[in-house]
Amino acid sequence: MGRLDGKVIWITGAASGLGRESALRCAAEGARLVVTDLAAPDTVAAEIADAGGGVLALAQDVTVEGRWDEVADEAEEAFGGFDVLVNNAGLGENRPLAETTLTQWRRVQSVNLDSVFLGTRLAFRRMRPGGSVINISSILGLVGNAGTAAYCASKGGVRLLSKSAAVEAAQAGLTIRVNSIHPGYIETPMVVNAVNKRPEPDQVMAYIASRHPVGHLGEPADIAHAVVYLASDESRFVTGAEMVVDGGYTAW
Ligand SMILES: NC(=O)c1ccc[n+]([C@@H]2O[C@H](COP(=O)([O-])OP(=O)(O)OC[C@H]3O[C@@H](n4cnc5c(N)ncnc54)[C@H](O)[C@@H]3O)[C@@H](O)[C@H]2O)c1
């Protein structure tokens, strides 16, 4: 018996990092997966299928409004609908505020926040009863940081969008829960590539590690475990919560 037997879980940005690991863990717990990314995440899908799991891999740019319903249609055709949506796709952004153009600002909001609105709205309209929306925010949706104002604004928006949606769903009698996850720095391509662009990457990585009381970055599995919990019925009384998984980053 898996913890997610019978559930259909749709994960955006599933080709890499946290989305990929979450997809693999959810499949290992018995869920069937709809995995999407800018290009269909066929490698992740093959890993799931090779292990005997049910999976559908599709291309989905989360900023394209009309694509959400198309993917939901395909999920319905393949699996009869979906029970969990993990709004994971996102862009990192490091740019001094004074050098940020309005176009750059809007791009970050579009990928990181507008997409979460589109996905959460779709869940209200089409998710099966008893479902769970899991929105991947960040510690940088809880505390500020120099050089990442657009990113922080988008992730702070995800936090309060999630809480508002949780209250509205409950009051409307929709049996859908909505929660956000706030990872500390996790070793994924998003972080590693950004650090490698800096003049002294080793020192930057050591500094980032030192910001976490535990003294190191997290691993994708640390977030995937939280996704599994929020996707499962073990979290049936959890809605509107901000689940901080950050090695203590925001505790001091
Ligand atoms: N890694 C961290 O330290 C960290 C910390 C806090 C929050 N997060 C958040 O976790 C999520 C996953 O990040 P990650 O670290 O795994 O990054 P990643 O870069 O490894 O993966 C992100 C994925 O999102 C996809 N993506 C980007 N734009 C897209 C779009 N418009 N439509 C569809 N897919 C798109 C990318 O192709 C990529 O596969 C992001 O929302 C990120 O902001 C990451």
From TrEMBL:
InterPro entries referenced in this protein's UniProt entry, alphabetically: KR_dom, NAD(P)-bd_dom_sf, Sc_DH/Rdtase_CS, SDR_fam
Source domain of life: Bacteria
GO molecular function terms listed in the Swiss-Prot or TrEMBL record: oxidoreductase activity, acting on the CH-OH group of donors, NAD or NADP as acceptor
One Pfam family cited in the UniProt record for this chain: adh_short_C2
Annotated keywords: Oxidoreductase
Domain Ketoreductase: 7-189
Family per similarity comment: Belongs to the short-chain dehydrogenases/reductases (SDR) family.
PANTHER family: 3-OXOACYL-[ACYL-CARRIER-PROTEIN] REDUCTASE, SHORT-CHAIN DEHYDROGENASES/REDUCTASES FAMILY MEMBER
Name listed for the protein in its UniProt record: 3-beta hydroxysteroid dehydrogenase
Organism: Minwuia thermotolerans
